[in-house]
Amino acid sequence: MEEFDAVVIGAGNAGLTAAAALQLSGQRTLLLERHNIPGGCATSFVRGEFEFEVALHQLSGLGPQDKPFVMRQMFQSLGIMDKVEFVQEHELYRYVVPGEIDITLPASWSGLRDTLKTHFRHEAAGIDRFLALCEGIATERFAILPEIAKRNDPELLKARCPLFAQYGMQPASEILDELFTSQAIRSVVGAYWCYLGLPPSQLPFADLAMVLYAYATFKPWHVKGGSQALSNALLESFLNAGGSVQFNCAAQRIETEHGRVCAVHTEHGARIACDIVISNASSVVTYHDLLDGEAPPEVVRQDFRSRRIGTSAFVLYIGLDCPPEQLGIPCASSFICNHLDEEKAYARMKTLDAPEHTMLTCYNIDDPDFAPSGKSVVSLVCLQYGAAWDDVAADDYFDTKYALADQLLLQAEQVYPGLRAHIEQMEVATPKTMMRYLNTPGGAIYGFEQNAADSPLVRGHINVIPGLYLAGSWTSMGGFQPTYMAGFSAAEIALKARHNAEESAHA
Amino acid sequence: MPKPNQALTAVTGYQQALDLQQQLAEQGTDLSELRGNVAQQLAQLHPKRLSLRVDAIIDETPSTRTLRVSAATGSLPNFQSGQYINLFVTVDGTETARPFSIASAPEQRSHYDLTIKRMPNGFVSHHMQDQIKVGDTLQSSGPMGAFFYNPVYHGKTVVFLAGGSGIAPARSMLNSLIAREAEIDFHLLYASQSADDVIFGQELEATAQAHANIQVHQVISRPSPEYTGLSGHLSAELMQRLLPLQADPIVFICGPTGFNEHCQAQLNSLGIANRRIRVEANGTPNPPQQLASWPEGLDPDREITVSVQGRGQFKAKIGEPLLNSLERNGYQAENACRSGECSLCRVKLLSGDVFNPPQAKLRKSDRQFGWIHSCVAFPTEDIEILL
């Protein structure tokens, strides 16, 4: 029988960081991954001359070298900063509604202010107020609130986090309505809603404010070799520290004894004894499919009742036979929208109809090495719920997929005409594809819907099965930075619990 | 629900968030209806393994047979014409596998046709032809591969250049086209060594007769004296004469490696860019020392030692793909295309070096961290790998 101190289920972002952190802290750790490669979302694939980035559009939280932020510090402690090369992007995004608005926002806090004021002269006061709110709320939420919230004192919170108290948990759309007179600027500054998966009416203002502030201040980053390079580097650190990994080996069951974790069983029939399990599988799969016993603990079931499966995505991975400038692609990220109505665009995400808000990322703008010389690598994405595909018969699957791909291209060509004629390679991924590779219900890419009720501020941390920790988008926010941080923090919590148990055993 | 946080009551919207949570909880479920749901959906759409029963064995030519297989349990998954399945077999005690294109159309999925040609020095094809009987059960991967028609950008004119048993995916595409009544002009140029070697010959002719949008040209490279049809190699001149090359076709090529390279060069000489050419993956380079990039002076017959970290070691020849020597020595590695593309057989090189031929579609960061595709990796010295 094999025995490890800890087993990490799934080599996604959170699983990799958790495994590396555990092993680097001296825990003998086994990392199990059902696929042949580490990364989960953070991966790439090759077609012809092209290597396609699967999921990373803009890495947040890194900060420039002279102004390092949390991710740079975390990657440093995991020993990967000398293994990966990061490339700074210089624009946040281009936002286009053909015939209505076309604006490119720079990745700089002061530049953002100037650009917005140049485009929206009559909104100057609102712009100043908005940016002040974003900065203030981000600072309060990140640096002050976590401690203050524990102090049981509403007045103290109001005094120390005044902006968050007044605006942070209100719907983003309401604050944007208050600050601005034109819908165009609301849509332009709210475009990152699609990184969060819900329209501004359902997003707490703080979430949107923090995303914009973080990207403009700490910059969006690209990784040389794509997110796969990050995944490979994390695995390398883990292996160099003595960790063990098994690919093509799914966990099948988490065994408990007297209510606490004691082993993990693999699809190949092995039983691995351990008393720490960090699951990077979705919480739904972890509790309903992996954890032994008839039903999950009641506290988990109660938590699930107020959750909703979040959005998936529909993606075209495209290799072009021309450089980006030939198509007039000016920056890495373009939001291409048919109109300024996020609610309407969101309603579309639940159907198989043509999407109305899409995003195009060109990966070789800031990193020319990412495509073969004279060519381009592009992703064309729209958010879409997996449920939209539930009634598609197997016989209709490919037709449905290509019909929708066709619609995305038609929309992109409104802004980048001639795109289709330059396609050299293309793969289409549907929510079912996401499900295949991520093993998540509905092919969800960000975990549960991140509405106001989903915030960690209104949810307790669930810790009912001693030794079992969840890490990933299903217990925190979705996206790269949040999932890396979730893995790191799950490892810290597990290590602390082990330390405490050892202390009390000695006492 | 967790106990409300006293401090957060100062936050506008906090109570509304709690109320929303309460309301969602009242309307929601504990998600137990999703128990097993992901696994079940994946088993239908992208099963990892298929259990297949051999329903019939059809003699096509003296060297080629079609295994007609159906699902031993459940049903066969949908696929795109041109895709393959990887058949797992045990030959003389060695567990191995080989990919075979599906020769039947996805529109009828009571069975898959797998058309298998006996390879002169083949290890598996003899077993497939001689040992497998009607009623046998076989294990395979699900359908895989990127060699298929994409309606979004491939256009309405399709050219297929098939050599020998490379006709299998072409037949699937043709039959699919007919079943769908697709408005596509399909031009098949099919090369065989002799008239005896033509697979699906009559069927293809009948198909072309019955459909105005389908053209079939058969070419025999070594015709008998009495043969009157097209003969010789697929030259640029022949392609220009028979194929609608001015219509910006998408061109599929499937045949032996030499055939594929020759056809691609001819097309390039006619101004067809590689952008419009799809070449089916075609196994490991055999023999690898004939590749232009093979290290000069490296003797493919020299023996080296392969160590599998923590598990053991064995001797193997430089010229043998790592995956094959692993399998011969009882080590299992997941695999499917066995041509360098799918990356399922990815293993980590801990020390030593291997020759990666151009067909190894390695990710940039895999190169950086020493991950290789074992199906087309040739150890050039003693190596240690992580499996």
UniProtKB/TrEMBL annotation, chain A:
One matching Pfam family: Amino_oxidase
Domain of life: Bacteria
Gene3D superfamilies referenced in this protein's UniProt entry, alphabetically: FAD/NAD(P)-binding domain
Domain Amine oxidase: 14-492
Keywords of the record: FAD, Flavoprotein, NAD, NADP, Signal
Protein name, as recorded: FAD-dependent oxidoreductase
Organism: Ferrimonas pelagia
From TrEMBL, chain B:
Cofactor(s), names only, from the UniProt record: FAD; [2Fe-2S] cluster
Gene3D superfamilies from the UniProt entry: 3.10.20.30, Nucleotide-binding domain of ferredoxin-NADP reductase (FNR) module, Translation factors
Limits of the 2Fe-2S ferredoxin-type domain: 302-387
Keyword Flavoprotein assigned: yes
Iron-sulfur keyword on record: yes
Domain FAD-binding FR-type: 47-150
Entry protein name: NQR complex subunit F
Native source species: Ferrimonas pelagia
Lineage, opening ranks: Bacteria, Pseudomonadati, Pseudomonadota, Gammaproteobacteria, Alteromonadales
